[in-house]
């Protein structure tokens, strides 16, 4: 009799434990499946291996891509010239706005060194040098960029220059940029270039000249599994980021366009990646409520979840899923250097965003990804109407 009672009690406890575990699993799954709320006006998250889109928000709206443009510039150079070609620096490349290498005409660097600086610190002069050495002229290189974009299935993209400086007829979408990013990350040399946090750039001529470069991608070294890809910032584009991360067999790519400031692009991307990893990189596409999002982004009054100015602290990025609507602010290198912008490279407020109806207007004064050095010149970007 006692044995039967003991046996029944053990069975009852066993059933209770099993039921509790099942309930915990169901609860955990529901928590993980909570879609993020982000500040960016356009975004997309996808599984890089399967192509499965996990989240999208205004993913097909044309916007200024800023320095995310350089993903295409880099992959074209890798596929045509590789890492070891010797590139001569032209006067135009040396004088391009935002050239942190402070190159001079007739200097020479290896193609890999120029691409590394272009992807790590977003040097616009390096991008011009790459374009000129690959195709002869920036205009011919832009034609090659557009041909490659079409080949990759980009249907709402047109490039006018290799660096992403604001220009008419220079636009893309979150979906198209994700296609470019997925393609680029299949190239081992590209992956190596975009995962670097620090690097020493060396000249061929003069042979002893070097430059210490440090990435503008705040997720590298802070976010678990982060391995790329590219930051972007102009007055018209606002905060842009192509972010990738890998954990185990799952690799995710997030594209964030027109995030409110320098910092929220990182927290936006973090939330997207956290969500993607929480569901194992698989699931149905979550389409954001763009109507309410536009209201929140256009508000000038401080509200919950609405950033009005960057925070003064730099919290470490969490690697756990984020479910709150407000996000911590990550201090970017660009924002830290904002006070160093010289008087001859002032930020103007007349620039307009890329949209379905109106392409981005070109501007003489564009801050691309970082404040321009005092020695930087201002070059008008190449402009060509699609089909012209």
What do you see in this structure?
With 388 residues, the protein is of the alpha+beta class. It has one domain: Beta-lactamase. It has eleven helices and ten strands. The strands form two sheets. A six-stranded mixed beta sheet has the order 7-8-9-1-2-10, with helices on both faces. α2 runs parallel beside α5, α4 runs antiparallel to α5 and α5 packs across α6. The longest helix is centred in the N-terminal third of the chain and has 31 residues. The radius of gyration is 23 Å and the shape is elongated. The relative contact order is 0.18. About 24% of the residues have low confidence.
| SSE series | HEEHEHEHHHHHEEEEEHEHH
Binned strand content: 15-25%
- Mean pLDDT score, rounded? 78
The CATH topology, please? Beta-lactamase
Radius of gyration: 23 Å
* Count of individual helical segments: 11
- The outline comes out as elongated
Number of domains: 1
Largest sheet: 6 strands, mixed
If strands are numbered along the chain, what order do they take across the biggest sheet? 7-8-9-1-2-10
In CATH's first tier, which class applies?
A: Alpha Beta
Estimate the helix proportion, in percent.
Answer: 25-40%
Number of strands: 10
CATH architecture annotation: 3-Layer(aba) Sandwich
CATH superfamily: DD-peptidase/beta-lactamase superfamily
Q: Structural class of the secondary structure composition?
A: alpha+beta
Q: Note poorly predicted spans.
A: 26-31, 291-378
